[in-house]
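Slack export, channel: ligand-projects

TW: morning all. Re-posting the request from yesterday since it got buried. We need the structure predicted with the small molecule present, not the apo form. The ligand is zinc ion; the SMILES is in the block with the sequence. No rush, but it would help planning for next week.
GE: picking it up
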Amino acid sequence: MKKTLICGGLVVTKDTIGKYDISIVGEQIEALKIHGEFSAADFDEVIDANDLIVMPGLVEPHVHFDAPFMGGKTDHDMLTGTKACAYGGITSVISFSNQGKGESLVQNVKDWDKNNSGRAYVDWSMHGLIYDASELSLHDIPELIKLGIPTYKCFTTYRHSQRLMDDDSMLKVLKTTKENGGMLMVHCEHDATCEYLKEKAITEGHTEWIYHAKTRPARAEDMAIQRVVDLMRTENAPVYIVHASTADSVRIIAQAQTDGLPIHAETCTHYMLLTDKMLERDDGYLWVCSPPLRQAHDLERLWNAAKMGPIEVVSSDDAGLPSQMRRDLCEGRFDKVPNGMPGVEPRLTMLYSKGVREHHIDLQKMVALTSTNPAKLFGLKNKGCLAPGADADICLFDPNIEWTMTASTLHMNTTFCPFEGERVVGKAKTVLCRGEVVLRDYELVGSPAHGQRVFRELEY
Ligand SMILES: [Zn+2]
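GE: finished. pasting the full token output, ligand included:
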């Protein structure tokens, strides 16, 4: 088996920071030693990590690859998405199933396996999407868990596209989740509030982009999260709140944790860095996502919640659609804009550049939020750490390189970058996934034959 040494870097994990060298044998980490203790002559390849930060490969638990939308699909599929992942330091990515309502989730996952063999630069997994508590859905949950997919998402909104899960269904799904060892992910926005405000705005002649934010207010998200918390008091199953975005959402989640409920939460890069001011631009439709971008005081609270809890994960919710298609479909109306932004590649640089360098979080917290915590929460057993026996998933991050982030300096399959024109610092330089170099000196060198679906199993 090939032996590789990563030599001279500053190793940063959730628990440690220091100058260590890492030996890799085949696909796994063999050992870590104080810098200089290994002999380079014992290795087939030595990767110089001087002046670099060496961290576990990132785990991205929230993207929408190949998600169908009105005859089109999201920007990224497995091939283009995992390529952008490699450039963003990500070595494991979890996307969502894409079956329609009434179709078998288990069959959909089997199709993903079949259709994506040889199409992933890095390792990957799926979450299920679940719309109701039909006999089929409840039957699919234990089957899905047996396939190594113990997590699935539901929505408290999107009634009009048949995706809303009502309270009756959620209680049954929570019960089945608890009995089978899964975790339910929930998109929280109170649908009736959003629908009511939308109708009202349209009736009053307001179609501007900013009304997307005004009609999906913070309180709609807070209400929906509180409702899920209250349902958990009846059926106490693990829950993961996706994209918490408001100041109060983190207060509600923290209180639920204090009460002993098994609730976890993520936020996304864009909620920590951008405000609804973006929707006041002429091209504001490009920043339409749900929940919408919030306000400055929310951002401050999210950074604090990422530092102190209860936010455990920062994901990208990568779900871009072609800009031209978005403009054509919306006809100038806020409520018709297809939702979602690309973001899988900027996540690491933005968190470092705006989070670590501006003293919101430290390096170790950045590693926890983007790698160790999502690996643990989503049952990626051998990922998210740099320990003997773990997969050699490693990101060598250059913390000194300065550059301007634009769609053209990134490698995502899109012409839109939510952080267009930002001067930033830091970039993934070299990335290994299970011992294989997929990115070398900022350039993709990996093969789409390398990435495998990871069998996930929850530990709680
Ligand atoms: Zn999403």
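GE: first-pass observations. Residues 62, 64, 317, 319 surround zinc ion (CB under 6 Å). The chain has two domains: 3-55+389-404+417-444, 57-377.
TW: perfect, thank you
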